[in-house]
Amino acid sequence: MTDSKDTPLVVLVGRPNSGKSSIYNRLTGGDAVVANYPGVTVDLLHATMVLPKGTRVEVVDLPGFYSLNAVLDPKTDEGVARGFLEGAKASGRRVLVVQVVDGNRLGLGLRLTQDLLKDGWPLLVVVSQRDVTLDAGLDLDHAALQRRLGVPVLHVSAHEAAARDAVLQVVETQLARPLGPVDVLAWDPDVLAQQVMHDREDVDATMRSRRSLTDRVDSWLLHPVFGPALFLALMTLLFAAVFLVADPASAAVDAMVTLGRQLLSRLLGEGLFTQFLVDGVLAGAGTVFGFLPQVVLLSVGMEALYATGYLARGAFLVDRLLQLLGLSGRAFVPLLMGHACAVPAITATRVIRDPRERLTTILVLPLMTCSARIPTYGLILASFFSSQGPLVQAGMFVALYFSGVLSALVASWILRRTATRGRGLPLVMEMPDYRAPSAQVLLRKAWTASRDFTQQVGKTIVLASAVLWVLLNVTAPGEVVVDDGSPAIEHSVAARVGHALEPLTAPAGFDWRINIGLMASFGARELMVGTLGVIYGVENAGEDPAPLAQRLAEARHADGSRAYGVPTALSLLVFFVLACQCISTVAAIRRETHGWRWPLFTLAYTYAAAFIMSVVTFQGAKLLGL
Amino acid sequence: MQGRQDVPGITLVSRWELSRNPPGNVANEIDNHYHNRMSLVSPAAAASLSPHPLWGVALGQWTQVASLEMPEQERRWLAAMGVHAGARLVVLRTAAWGGPLHVRTASGGTFALGAALARQVMVVQEATPT
């Protein structure tokens, strides 16, 4: 609640997936996340606006909740919503609660209406999805519903522009009207819903058949055999499509960044500052923009699946598997989102009602194979396994992906028996009807995904890249630079730290150069390839890793022996699978767990596991003569 | 409580009648009702008509929730979602390997109910599918 005490508060409430965020967007033109999945609104979205007759109000979109009196944990969506309403009541501000009810599930929505009326909230009921209801041959007698409830009722479709004016006019009228007494016990939600929702006069067979569309689709998509197979195929297709489409897009972005670097060099001339701007700042920005197409495409793909209602079915299909590991189907979507980026996925865990399950999901999310790991995987596979042929490389790539999933599941199994042990809540999840995703919603998602990635992750990467450039280019105190042909970087501050760590990391097969890369990628994994490029004097390694791959494969120690082999490559891959190398993820965990305990725990357990498993892998591979 | 005679010895109570009673009373009413009548039917019929877990109910068979055998907080949460004593349910399908049930309520909601929870939802079978 940010506005002054005199500004009335209009609070949008409703069951999860009731169409509330669509109404919010229609009213405010805002960018709330809109999705056909229970519990998508995970933040309090608010906007200030002026009503038709000039009243200034603050509009707040609360997370979806089922009841004011059934909150199990204050940190869940329902807890957040209830806390906000209690705060609003205590603040003394004029409040109007606008409850959005899905017209296709009227009886369920009216249960919450009854709760809100019992608690004495001034209420406006907005029955949404009018277009869908009419298409199914049904219509709402909203006048009858209004008479029965004793509060104003509107029947609208968020797709229609007229909905905005209709809602705002009634909001303004209601804010000026004192609250009258309502009889909340005189009606039953289910019975009332049946009384006021009736067939249209022109209802025909086509309209009636639309009512069972979801059932017919579900008979295939939730089939015990075809369902999981279709689900796996769809997920594979989504990820394959993302990478197929993202590759050329990333190449185009890279080309533009390279052009910018050349232009900057030409404008500013050669010099240390130009190098800093070009190789430090702009190179970091290039890394960010190079990843943008993947992140945006995956986010839009996921949004399309949300909007259709299919992801709830995915949760249904995998619940049993996740139960074995102490999670439920509700953890499925955040875990899947973690394949794009852990930061939004951690925020999305707010849909998980069980606090222990939610914490477990947060703690294992950094293990999911996010897109930031891909350049390093690609570089190492190209450096040390190119002779094995593309099939082996592809197989290893898939294995690395599943290693992330597997390690997350194993970690979850262990955590649920140790750090987050305790009785879990069973799965109860509403299954929404299937709907066609709106192009507007998908475009908005593309925009918010790119904005969030640039703001939340991009700043860290650019800053870390700039700092790293300084550490790699400033000579360490006491270091005497001799022009013996060795790269200047060997005398830098970063090199000294890398050398100092060698006794610790040598059992895992890492030398000072890899140590520098690991230090750099502590901030963001994406920096590994660029850093190794700087160390090996390969320009634009982020854009074209082939020369760097060759340099890595041919790298030698001072005594002429080969610096890295397959054991080091495997060890490094294992390290990247397990370590939480992302400052933004750590920050997101801190925000969601309200303290430093769990982010530090995450860093500690992932780095410990990564180091131990790297040592085991390196030593094991050496023993096997690889 | 008034009701209609659908099968010998059993009076099915309409949802409208159920809705006029607070949920706690409904559960007690159903319990008393069935206990009083059980002696009038055969053991086989009594077994199918006495409250039993939702887990294991045949697909497509409409049932009525008799009670929710779980802690109060969870009971309230489930009731708020639409699964409460007196609610009519039908199991549409079950997920593979003992996964959740896909359930529809008479009020139009469809839910995934975890297997553990489905064992705590006690239902009575309706005489005829609706």
What tags apply to this protein structure?
heterodimer, A: 626 residues, six-stranded mixed sheet, two-stranded antiparallel ribbon, 9 strands, 59% helix, B: 130 residues, alpha+beta, 5 helices, 32% helix, 28% strand, globular
Report on the architecture of this protein.
- The complex is a heterodimer of chains A (626) and B (130).
- Chain A has 626 residues and is α/β, with parallel strands linked by helices.
- Helix content of chain A is 59%, strand content 7%.
- Chain A contains 25 helices and nine strands.
- In chain A, the strands form two sheets. Chain A has a six-stranded mixed β-sheet, with helices on both faces. A two-stranded antiparallel ribbon of chain A has the order 6-8.
- Chain A is elongated and about 90 Å long.
- The termini of chain A are far apart.
- Chain B has helices at residues 15-19, 23-37, 43-49, 72-81, 115-118, and strands at 4-7, 10-12, 52-53, 62-68, 88-94, 101-105, 110-113, 121-125.
- In chain B, strand 1 (4-7) and strand 2 (10-12) form a beta hairpin.
- In chain B, the strands form two sheets. Chain B has a six-stranded antiparallel β-sheet. A two-stranded antiparallel sheet of chain B has the order 1-2.
- The longest helix of chain B is centred in the N-terminal third of the chain and has 15 residues, at 23-37.
- Chain B has five helices and eight strands; from the N terminus they run ββαααββαβββαβ.
- With 130 residues, chain B is of the alpha+beta class.
- Chain A binds chain B through residues 66-67, 69-70, 72, 104-108, 111-112, 115, 188-191, 193, 214-215, 218, 222, 224-225, 227-228, 312, 315-317, 319-321, 323, 328-329, 353, 425-431, and chain B through 15-16, 19-20, 73-74, 76-83, 92-100, 102, 105-117.
